[in-house]
Amino acid sequence: MATPASSTARPHPRTPAAPKPPFPHHAGSAISIEQFSLVDISHVLKRADFLIHEEPLTRAKRLAKRRVALLFYESSTRTRTSFELAAKSLGIDTTLVSNLSSSIEKGESLKDTGLTLRALGAEAIILRHNCSGAPYVLEHFTNLPVLNAGDGQHEHPSQALLDLLTMLTHISPKHAKGEVELTAETLKGVTVSIVGDILHSRVARSNMLLLPKLGAEVVLSGPPELLPDVAAESAPGVVIERDFETALKRSRVVMMLRIQSERLAGLNVDLEEYKVKYQLNETRLAQFAPEAIVLHPGPIIRGLELTAEVADGPQAKILEQVHNGLPTRMALIERAFDAIDKKGASR
Question: In what helix (H) or strand (E) does residue 147 lie, and over which residues does it extend?
Fold first, then answer.
């Protein structure tokens, strides 16, 4: 009697899953906040505190005459200046390439611009780009460490790290200085509200991925046009509260975001109504969050997302954020060159 075909048939081979490419390729890159463990972040904070207090002439010898290119496809004041001063503080020679003063304006691709910078001796590239994922592409083709200074609507990891440093300075100074290792409970019981144009904010996205790792609750607040419901699925510990004043009551930290008018095409956003519902003013702050610190990644649009009185008031730590960008980015640049040197030594 013949054996049933079902008992003799060979199992159909499964197509093996495609191997995931290493991300990032270079250990010195800082493309996404997700690539940083809590140990990594603790080290960055510790080095940031050390470097900012180091004698300047000694610090300037650390990476003397090494080379970094700043490749900026978008305008920037704080981020670009901060990265440039951070590099120069370590003794690095920098060159700035913008889309308005280079062959980019003539249509040169990101790949070819990156390869040109590498051929001219750049050992690392700091990139700001209007397309999400651009730092990954640049790193892939150049095999250099790439520090993401903001890519499209994706991420801005160094901003999230300096925001964390600013928060910890007021909540847990020993963690801010790297004297104590960060844990999953460092910010337990702390609620951080992020308010405004979250849909377009790479700063919000990096903070939403970072802060829950340390135990913080992240409350998002804004109108549906600028804050889709799906944002609550970004990470455990992220929730949406449409009522701004309810969110304020829970907040130890309030991060206000700029309305990115250049990206509002096709969205029905009434800015006057927005101010009524979501503007942070002195009355709201005093009534609902008198002990909270106020952050803003900049640039500030006074009179829209917050009033001048709040921006200049005692609870605002906005200029402190700007200051903290310098040591944070020094630490990230040093980290990139440490990885370069280790890679070279292993060859």
Answer: strand 146-151
